Amino acid sequence: MTEVTARAAPGFNLRSWWAGIGQGRHVLGLIFLLPAAVFLIFFLTYPLGLGVWLGFTDTRIGRDGVFIGLENYESLWGDSIFWLAVFNTLIYTIGASVLKFALGLWLALLLNENLPFKSFFRAIVLLPWVVPTVLSAIAFWWIFDAQFSVISWALMKMGLISTNINFLGDSTNARMSVIAANVWRGIPFVAISLLAGLQTIPASLHEAATLDGASGWQRFRYITLPMLSPIIAVVMTFSVLFTFTDFQLIYVLTRGGPLNATHLMATLSFQRAIPGGQLGEGAAIAVAMIPFLLSAILFSFFGLQRRKWQQGGGD
After folding, report:
1. Which element (helix H / strand E) includes 269?
2. Rg of the chain's alpha carbons, rounded to an integer?
3. 106 and 187 in contact (C-beta within 8 Å)?
């Protein structure tokens, strides 16, 4: 019995067992991913699960709720303010994302040229992105002030208007104002990301196209845009996610006013849950945002599939 045990002992050697794990790339990768997985479970999965559960209850601040099924969602279905917030969110997201993409791509193409002081301009472009959102919102709150707006002052000095513009007191002006503030803050992220993608495109492709007589627009359409499409998909997906879930900018500038004209789903969810005390209803509004966010993620996924097509791979 002692001889058998002695022969079996080397098979259970701890050093050999650990060396075997080290040689397995997949097992070792899972071990390294474990801390990140634990972090995501505690700070992402648990809050998400709790929010989904609260959406099916009538929980209020200071009182535990009971399960009520789909009553919160049925209530939202007939809530005109909720549908106005959905409309505002879509207008805000689509308008700001389109403008950020157009202006960001133009700025990236400009910064990709051989300009003097190019590094300095690239650093300046990042300033709106690194400035805290609340500080940016306060600055725009002053810029859009009904009495002391610098925009109104400049236009009056040029003789283009006779009275101050009510930027945040009119529904249409307020929507346009918050979109402008979001675009100003989001352009740097789009521009710098696309600039990084532009610098990965081989210059030989443009040189060959130029020798073949291709114009600048043709080079952009048939070389730059297809090569940049995977990066555009990822960048714009993140841009849409950031814009759709925007809270700080709207809350500081308008608090959802005037007359709920700038209320987004995120701000309405906060208003119903915290100041309003209806945690269940606020959670239901937040959960209603998930299908829109999943759509943006699927857009990114299908955009990345073009990378395989460009490399000659299958779908």
Report:
1. helix 265-273
2. 27
3. no
Q: How many CB atoms lie within 10 A of CB 144?
A: 25
For residue 197, which of 68, 122, 109 has the smallest C-alpha distance?
109
Cα distances from 102 to residues 105, 109, 244, 289, in angstroms, run 5, 11, 18, 26
Contact 132, 181 (CB under 8 A): no
All residues at 6 or more sequence positions from 277 whose CB lies less than 8 Å from its CB, including other chains: 60, 61, 62
Looking at residue 154, its amino acid is A
Helix (H, G, I), strand (E, B) or coil at 51: helix
3-state secondary structure 50-65: HHHHHCCECCECCECC
Give the C-alpha separation, 74 to 284, whole Å: 10
Name residue, tokens 């937040």: 286
Question: Residue 67: what are its φ and ψ, rounded to 5°?
Answer: -70, 125
At 47, the amino acid letter reads P
- Per-residue pLDDT reduced to its tens digit, 145-184: 988 899 999 999 998 888 899 999 999 999 999 999 999 9
Whole-structure pTM value: 0.84
Of 98, 293, 263, residue with least CA distance to 187: 98
Beta-carbon count within 10 A of 161 CB: 13
Distance CA 151, CA 165 (A): 8
Torsional class of 209: left (φ above 0), alpha (ψ -120 to 50), beta (otherwise): alpha
Distance (Å, rounded) from C-alpha 262 to C-alpha 253? 10
